[in-house]
Write a structure and sequence with these properties.
Elements (H helix, E strand, L loop, with lengths): L1 E6 L3 E6 L5 H16 L5 H18 L3 E8 L4 E9 L7 H6 L3 H4 L7 E10 L7 H17 L4 E8 H9 L5 E2 L4 E3 L2 E9 H11 L1 H4 L2
Parallel strand pairs: 5-6
Antiparallel strand pairs: 1-2, 2-3, 3-4, 4-5, 6-9, 7-9, 8-9
């Protein structure tokens, strides 16, 4: 089952609530990354990466909030996911970069860490990419800025990182970039305070839901 959180006649934003939706999410995220960065690839060439993304999301599903944008035909044209880290499960930033937030940022027990990932947008969907990014990002950071002491952690495409900075998000780099899912990817974090300017400027997009 999916929960409708926003509709404007052009597209709908849904919150995914069931495990069966994860396969569709994984296929969309991986295919869009390849299409955006290196061109369309045959499904057989990327099915292992799709399965890897699916398996990762499966282990986080209990604590995840996943949003997908669907056009009027029901096709996914955008996605983002956020979850609160329990300090036990292996994070993507640990698996891919070998970075432990408790060592790279700090280990105080009263701080929370929220991982944002699986951001992807179909740039050929006929919907302004920047509009969707701002709306999805506002949804994703809402629980972070609502938390008393918190950090966002993520692995960002280098191009997306520039967009985030231009929109007023204060980013800290946690390490060097690597090539992941067809693009240069950089480990990053941002404190609640670093996200607050962006959120307050665009929070109307959240309250419109």
């Amino acid at each position: 089952m999916e929960k409708l959180v926003y509709a404007n006649g052009l597209y709908n934003i849904w919150q995914l609530t069931e495990r069966k939706c994860l396969q569709e999410l994984a296929e969309f995220v991986v295919k869009e990354n390849y299409k955006h960065h290196v061109g369309k690839r045959p499904y057989e060439c990327i099915k292992d990466e799709i399965n890897s993304v699916y398996q990762e999301e499966l282990q986080y599903i209990e604590n995840s909030t996943i949003f997908v944008v669907r056009d009027n035909t029901g096709k996914i044209v955008g996605s983002i996911r956020v979850f609160k880290w329990d300090r036990k499960k292996i994070l993507p930033i640990q698996k891919i970069f070998g970075i432990n937030p408790l060592e790279a940022i700090h280990a105080e027990s009263d701080y929370s860490y929220w991982h944002i990932g699986r951001f992807a947008i179909d740039s050929f969907a006929g919907i302004p990419t920047l509009t969707l990014f701002k709306q999805l990002m506002v949804y994703a950071v809402h629980p972070i800025v609502s938390d008393s002491k918190s950090y966002m952690i993520a692995e960002s495409d280098s191009k997306l990182l520039k967009v985030m900075s231009a929109l007023g998000i204060d980013i800290t780099l946690l390490g060097n970039s690597i090539y992941y899912l067809a693009s240069e990817t950089i480990p990053i974090c941002s404190s609640k305070q670093g996200l607050f300017s962006f959120y307050t400027h665009y929070q109307k997009l959240y309250h419109a839901s």
